[in-house]
Amino acid sequence: MAESLQYSLTEIQIATNNFSVDNKIGEGGFGHVYKGVLGNGQEVAAKRLSRSSGQGAEEFKNEILVVAKLQHRNLVRLLGFCLEGEEKILIYEFVPNKSLDYFLFGEFETRYVFPFFMSFLFFLLILCTFLQIFPWKIVPKKNNI
């Protein structure tokens, strides 16, 4: 495990104002996400895994290795982690609250082209299903029992 990716619990507590409710930007089944600012001024999102998630230290380390290898320009970048005592925290780059299509296509395409494109794909799906080009069925067959 690369030491440069590891943050201390103290660093993260300072960055998130001790996991202040004011800095909480999300929550899910695996824990809460807090916005923070590191000592160097970089904005981060700290995902604090709940103790009840059932994930042990070994599984946490494996997840870090997998996520670190999945770096892509359209994915939020993993900056590091904290593993101290019972605390398991992932540190991601902070991305402002906009949808992925805005970042991929920009404002004009997001507002006009992208919805049209998705509608067109949905139309093609219905047409192909109607013409039975693809093997799946929307309506199940009736049983002759």
From TrEMBL:
ATP binds at residue 47. One of its GO terms (cellular component) is plasma membrane. The chain crosses the membrane at residues 112-134. Residues 19-145 form the Protein kinase domain. It is found in: Membrane. Gene3D superfamilies: Phosphorylase Kinase, domain 1. It is a single-pass membrane protein. SUPFAM superfamilies: Protein kinase-like (PK-like) (SSF56112). Keywords: ATP-binding, Glycoprotein, Kinase, Membrane, Nucleotide-binding, Receptor, Repeat, Serine/threonine-protein kinase, Signal, Transferase, Transmembrane, Transmembrane helix. One of its GO terms (molecular function) is ATP binding. PANTHER family: CYSTEINE-RICH RECEPTOR-LIKE PROTEIN KINASE 5, RECEPTOR-LIKE SERINE/THREONINE-PROTEIN KINASE SD1-8. This is DH200=94 genomic scaffold, scaffold_5621. It comes from Coffea canephora.
